[in-house]
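Contributing: when you submit paired examples, paste them exactly as shown. First protein:
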Amino acid sequence: MNKDSLSASIDPVPTQGRAQAPAPGDRAFRFKSGSVIRAGWLAEDLPFLNRSLRYLLRGQGGELRQEFGLESGDIGVLGVLQSNPGVTQNDLAASLVLKKSAVTRVVQRLEARGLLTRARSPLDRRANILNLTEAGADLAQRVRAAAAARHADWFTGISAEERAVFFDVLFRLVDRLAETHPADPGEDDDD
């Protein structure tokens, strides 16, 4: 179901044939069709807003991957390796909230493309350490720049200070929840 069909299936509060604008502080969804749907308590429900954001941004992630010839999971791996040279494959999987088997597939694919190297850890022969190649580092930087341009568009009308607060709070929430979450996620996810 797309957003426009959702708005058509829910009747907004009518005001002479049109949807009534929400009162200040009353958050609402505004659709291309002109419908306005009050969010009510869902305006502060993290799982609901997360699901909505993922739906609205999913196409953007697909476009970014297509632009650089990447597949699901590749961008996350490139980003983590860019900031964490020599990370173990297990720590990479945990940081991306992906199953180890999914990360193994991504690592093999990126290694075959010459974008990263994999070697046994000298400290723990059971662990693989990963590093970007020069080509991988270049690609990661180009993807980062393209993602930054998309973020600038998404955050139009939101100040730099508000954006910084948003990401600070979001990151702290993820960090806190990660401390108590099981190490191996139940399902694979997009980057």
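Second protein:
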Amino acid sequence: MTADRTVPVALSARHVHLSKEHVEALFGPGYRLTPQVDLSQPGQFAAKECVEVVGPRRSIPGVRVLGPPRGSTQVELSISDGVLLGIALPNRLSGNLAGTPGVHLVGPRGAVKLRQGAIAAARHLHATPKDAERLGLRDGQKVYARLLGARGIIFDEVVVRVADAARLELHLDTDEGNAAGVKTGDRAEIVASLCRESCSVADCPIAASVTDGQGRPFCDFTRTRSFR
């Protein structure tokens, strides 16, 4: 593994981002979130406040609120959480909420019915412009993340998110972390193209049609080769 292409992994547990309006609806007029722990991404924090997320089948109490407040309320859950709640969660980047399912949120001073906003967050890589330049990546690009170990796996469709106020970090949810047997603080190798970076087949007839970060089409080489 090439050391300078590895990045730290952060597992993201279920959480809620609230609009200012919904902070007050759930916790009371004029209420402000109480920072408890700073998160790795600059300016963001885990608040002391929690809410209950209610779906058609069941509910999940004690879901952490992250701050600061956002323009729109967003509930980020794992696919397993969606099964528990009775919701088919779409795979979306943060902020892309159009057409997503809604849930009820219950706080100590009130409740909110969301018409939309529940998602399974798409796996993504945070990077500064300097990080992106070093790794040869661009904002919005899709890449692979290769994780080693007894349950080693290659994740595709990892979206690169470049911003000045960022910290280099691969974000996976708890389902993905458990599947790969990884934890926060482990490292993953970023691979832009399996064809270009892992395949030695000359004059490959399908290489030109393979899009970076997308796992198909697979050729016999990528199906059978061991990446350990």
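If you have annotations for the second protein, write them as plain sentences, like these:
The CA atoms of residues 99 and 181 lie 32 Å apart.
DSSP finds six helices and 15 strands in the chain.
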